[in-house]
Amino acid sequence: KNLKKYYPITGGVFGKEVGVVKAVDDVSFTVKRGETFGLVGESGCGKSTTGRSLLRLIEPTSGEVVFDGTDIIGLQGEALRKMRRNMQIVFQDPFASLNPRHNIEKILEEPLRVHGIGSPAERKERVRELLEVVGLSSYHATRYPHQFSGGQRQRIGIARALMLNPKLIVADEPVSALDVSIQSQVLNLMQDLQRDLGLTYLFIAHDLSVVRHISDRVGVMYLGRLVELSRSEELYRQPLHPYTRALLSAVPSPDPDAVRERIILQGDVPSPSNPPTGCTFHTRCPHVTDECRQVRPDFRDVGGGHFVACHLYNA
Ligand code: SF4
Ligand code: MG
């Protein structure tokens, strides 16, 4: 709720603060129990920072993160550790996130050890159980990360996230580094796990096609802000924000009759240290008006939980 993460920019010999990067600038949304919420946008739009702030892997500058009724921002020590068991993260690059010198058993057992859960024998048993759950075998336990393919390593990353029986998983581009043929296997696994274990996902992606089939709702971010949020089918059927429309026009449609006009955006994403005035998308928008350059559009519900921040939809 009203989540912000600002980074100071320092300069000169005295390291004086000369500006600020608004990586996440007043973002609010709700993830419902059992759903998959897709968070989409180009790199640098603040989606990973948002996801990490939810787990307090990054401390937000301000705002609230309410999990099951508790604002976790104020939590410290034991209370924070307990809360963290409920929320885990799966990273984009499974190789970088697994310690190459540890075998799989040691890697998977670690969260249990850190939280003081189970005897060594029980932890061993849990590791073997979870390897099976993610489609690997207990004999993989004694192997090392480099002995696995990218897809298998991501299965290990998912198993590690599941060790503590979390309720929420933040998946930060979990399939972006994988071959297309492997992507769908990992996505299918994640969907099976969600159904079997009652998981809730915040699924971060830079590409709308990846989240299309797995998300119940999707939020689109641009330059640190949410610009559109809606139920997934509706977003794909009737995207409202010009940015969402441009992103979607780059995604091949599965319906051969749907002729979608390819919208090419002008220019690059502006620097988040010097964002445009008014609507931050105005430098690239084909519908820009004077109002857009001066007045920042509110993020409003235009009906049925479809939110958009754009002057085109002001009643
Ligand atoms: Fe484009 Fe104006 Fe809407 Fe911004 S507010 S997306 S510039 S039409
Ligand atoms: Mg990222």
Could you please describe the fold and organization of this structure?
It holds the Pfam family oligo_HPY. Keywords: ATP-binding, Nucleotide-binding, Transport. This is ABC transporter ATP-binding protein. The chain has one domain (3-313): P-loop containing nucleotide triphosphate hydrolases (Rossmann fold, 3-Layer(aba) Sandwich), CATH 3.40.50. Helix 3 (104-114) crosses helix 4 (120-133) and helix 4 (120-133) crosses helix 5. Strands 6-7-8-3-9-10-12-11 form an eight-stranded mixed beta sheet, with helices on both faces. It starts with a strand and ends in a 7-residue tail after the last strand. It has helices spanning 47-54, 77-84, 104-114, 120-133, 150-162, 180-197, 208-212, 232-237, 242-249, 290-294; strands at 3-11, 16-27, 36-40, 66-67, 70-71, 87-90, 168-172, 200-205, 217-222, 225-231, 300-301, 307-308. Helix content is 30%, strand content 20%. It is α/β, with parallel strands linked by helices. The longest helix is centred in the middle third of the chain and has 18 residues, at 180-197. The mean pLDDT is 92. The site of iron/sulfur cluster has 13 residues, from loops.
